[in-house]
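Before relying on records like the one below, remember that each one covers exactly one chain. Contacts with other chains, cofactors or solvent are not represented anywhere in the record.
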Amino acid sequence: MKGKINGRPVINRRSVKTVRLTAVLLMIFTVALSGCVDNGQNDTDNETEEPADGQNTSNEEYTYGMANVESIDILTLESFPVQIHVIAEGYLPDGCTEIDEINTEKEGNTFNVNITTKRPKEAICTQAIEDFKETIPLEVQGLSAGNYTVNVNGVIGSFELAVDNTFEEPPSPMPPRQQVVTEANNGTTISLEKGETFYLRLQENPTTGYSWELNLSHGLNTTDNTTDTSGTYYPPESEEGEQPLVGAGGVHLWEIRADSEGSQQVNAIYKRSWENETGEEDKFTLNVEVV
């Protein structure tokens, strides 16, 4: 209650305390209620909907660009038909950038090769330059003889086809009724009389770039009386009137004569001519006893 003392209003202190206590209790109640509501909302916000089976949930985005090509080397493989491989070397700007696609288009006598890259947008990467080396086969089967240009991301090279790169009539059939040695004889020994010949027949697929390299001991020679051990490659057989199947393997044939008595040996290794030997290549060995 209010009154006056000496003309001044008097405030009831008990009433003031009651008002203050009520305000405090109301505030505590409001905070508590707010906490309950927030907790409920947070529980709802933290729930994660499980993705459907097989659904890709990755949202990673990439930045795409062109690879930095510094040099190209054009290899002409000694195969039938001729194969052309382009070796492109360059660098990537950091540890997250990688080769994305390699696309080749031919316009006239020019092969345009585009090497693209991709890099995750939000990735944190090492800033060290990464070298790369890509071997790119060109589709040259059926091309006419002539000069051709190769453009790999602005780096220019060229190659020449001396003759039309088309299938011709296959060599004459392999000689019948003659001793023939194959992969099944690897590591074995055969016996020959001096002056006698035999045929070495090994499976080969030049379209992969691999071929057999032959080495003969001093007492063995090919029948053409030269040091040439290239032999003859026979493409896969096909039906009459049809061209051999592209990419299929054939056989490589050598006719070898025993010229000196004693223990002789044939060694062969299956590798790409432009690559160094690693020790993991397929090898063939034949021991020949000449009497």
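Residues 180-290 form a domain with the Immunoglobulin-like fold (CATH 2.60.40.2020).
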